[in-house]
Amino acid sequence: MDATTTTTNGVTTDFLHGGAGEPTFYLHSVIGETMWLPFCEELSAHVELFLPTHPGYGTSEGFSGLSSVEDLVYHYLDLFDELDLSAVNLVGCSLGGWIAVELAARNPERVKTLVLVNALGLWLDDDPIGELFGLESDDLAALLCFRDDSDLSDYLSVSPGLQALHQTAPDLPLYNNLAAAARYGWDPYMHNPKLPGLLHRVKSPTQVIWAAHDRVVSPNYGKRYADYIHGAALQIVPNAGHILAADQPRALSNAVLGFMRSVRSS
Amino acid sequence: MPYTGLPDTYDGLAWVSCSNALYDPSLGKELYHRYIDELILAEELGFDGVVVNEHHSTAYGGMPSPNLIAAVLARQTSRMKIAVVGNALPLYNPPTRVAEEWAMIDVISGGRLIAGMVVGGGPEYFASSINPVFARERFREAHDLIVKAWTAPGPFTFNGKHYRMRYVNPWPRPLQKPHPPIWIPGMGSLETMEFIAAKRYSFMGIPWFHRSVVSKNIELFKKACRSQGYEPSPTQMAWLAPIYVADTDARARAEYERHFWYFVKTLLRGINIQPPGYVNPKSIKNVVLGFAQFVTNVHTWEDVVSGGYAIVGSPETVRQKILEEVRRLGVANLLGLFHIGTLPAAETRRSLELFASDVMPWLKERSNDSVAQTGT
Fold this sequence. Notes:
The structure holds two protein chains of two kinds. Chain A has helices spanning about 40-45, 70-80, 95-105, 135-145, 155, 160-165, 175-185, 220-230, 245, 250-265, and strands at about 1-10, 10-20, 25, 50, 90-95, 110-115, 205-210, 235. By secondary structure, chain A is an alpha/beta fold. Chain B has an eight-stranded parallel beta barrel with strand order 1-2-3-6-7-8-10-11, surrounded by eight helices. In chain B, helix 2 packs parallel to helix 3, helix 3 crosses helix 5 and helix 6 (about 190-200) packs across helix 7 (about 210-225). The radius of gyration of chain B is 20 Å and the shape is globular. The chains are: A alpha/beta, B alpha/beta. The interface between A and B is medium-sized, with 17 and 19 residues.
C-alpha cells in the first residue's frame, strides 16, 4: 500500500492505494475513515483499491471553493482523468455513497459498477436522517456503530504515510472531519432534493448494501435507492450500524467482492 | 431578557431543543414590559447606554430580534446610547436588512446607535440551518456589504461568494458619520482580533469566562492593535460583567446567588453547543481550553467570586472590584449585566439605583473616559 497526494484544479487529493486488478474506489463516510483498515486488505487482494480522502477531511488542502456534493463529483471526475481511468468500480459508504451515486447519475460512462453502502443523499419525511452534529463523542459513537466494541478512533486517524507527506495532522480529527461533512451536508441536511430526479440516469450494475441497525439512514433509505435505480438489489447486513466498515468489515468486503464476481460472470 | 417560567422540573437544554410549548405568552408580555422598563430606567439613572443582543430558540433571552427592542428604546429614551451587540450577520440574507434596520434606529434615535456585529452563538446555526462552516466567511462579507451600503452612494452592485446583489441602495442612511460605531465581541479567535484591530473597531470581551480568559483576550486584542502600529485607547475596549449591588455584602449574596445559579445551571445549558466548523479547526484547541473555564463548569460561590464571574456586594466592594479590574484590563467601557436569571424586578431596580448613586459617579471620578452601560 502506498500513500499519494495529487492536485487537480487546485484541490489536493490524498489517497492510499494498493492491490492489482480492476480500479476500485472506496469513498468514505461522514466521519472520514481514511486509514488502510482490514476491509481494505480484503478488497485489495482482488482489486486495485483507491482510498481517497474527500476534500476538507484529514490533511487535504485547497478545498475552500467546494461546498456541495456536486462539487465533489466534479472533483472526483478530475481525479479519474488525472489517473487516466476511464471507468471505475465505486463503493461508497454514507457521504461516500451519496457522492458515488451522484457521480454515476451525472457521468454514467465513468462507472463500471456501483455499490451503495448506507448511502446518504435521499430524504424521507417520515423517517428523517439522524442528527450527526452537536453530539458528545460517546453519543456519536452510539449513533454510528452497532457494536459496543467498535472503536471509531482507529478510523479517524490520518494514515502515517499521508502525515509524512504533509508533515502535519489535524489537532482534533473528529472536529475537523465533521466540519468537512457539514460543508457538504448541513443544509439541505445530508441530501439533495433533486437526487430522485437524477437516479434514472444510473446505468451501471448496482448493489445496495444496508446495515440492519443503521441509526443515521434506516434500511428504508436502502429500499428507496433499490426502487429508484434500475436493476439494483438490496442486501441487508445484520448486527451493523452506519459505519459498516467498523462494525462488520468482513461482511462489507465479502458483499462487495461477491457482487463484483456476480457482475463479471453475468 | 430571560424567560422565568420554565417548570421547576425542567432539566433539558435551554437552547435549540427547549420546546416553545413551554413559552407562556401572557407571562412573556409581563416580562417584555418589565425588562423594557428596566432599560428605560437606566437612562433616568444616568447610565451612558444600554446593550441588547440577539439569540434564537432559547429560554435564555427573549430577543430573537434585538432591533425591535432597540426601536422601542430609540423612541422612548432621548439621551443614552443604544448598543445592539449584536446582530448575527450570517443569519441575515440579504444582510442589507441589517443596514436598513440599524439606519432606521440610528435616524429615529438621533444618532445613538452602536452597531455590534457578531457571528452568533453556536446554537444559532442549529436554529437557522445556516451552514456554520461558512459562518466566518459570511460574517466578513456581510460586514463589507453593510459598511459599504452605509458609506458608498447607491445603487451599486455587490458580488461576493455568499451574497450577490445587483442593486444595493438601502434607504435610509444612518445619521452618524461615516457610520455608527462598530463593536465586535470575541471569544479568543486571533483572526477576529486582527480584523477588529485593522478596522479600528471596538473590542468587547464576552462574559461567563474566568477573569484570566477575559484578560488574555484583551491582551490578544492589544497585541493585534500594536501589530497594526497603534496602541488601542481604553475606549476601544469593553468589559462585560454581571453586577449586583445591595447594602451589604451578605445581603447582596443572599438576594442574588440563587438567581445566578438558575441562570448558570438552567438557562446557560446548551449555549456552548459547538456546530461543526463554526470555529476554524486551527483555533478549536484554544476555544476548547477556554470553555474549560466557562461558568457552567463552576460550582461554588467562592469560585464565582474569585474567578470574577460576577461582581456582587456592597457599593464599596463593587467599587473596589470594578476599579481593580478596569485598571488591570485597561478598558474604559464597563458593561454591567444587572439582571440575571430569575432576579425579581424590585431587586433589579434597587441594584441599578445603588450602582447609579454609589458606584458609577465614584468610578467616573477615577477614570476620565469611563463609560457605564447596562446590558440585558
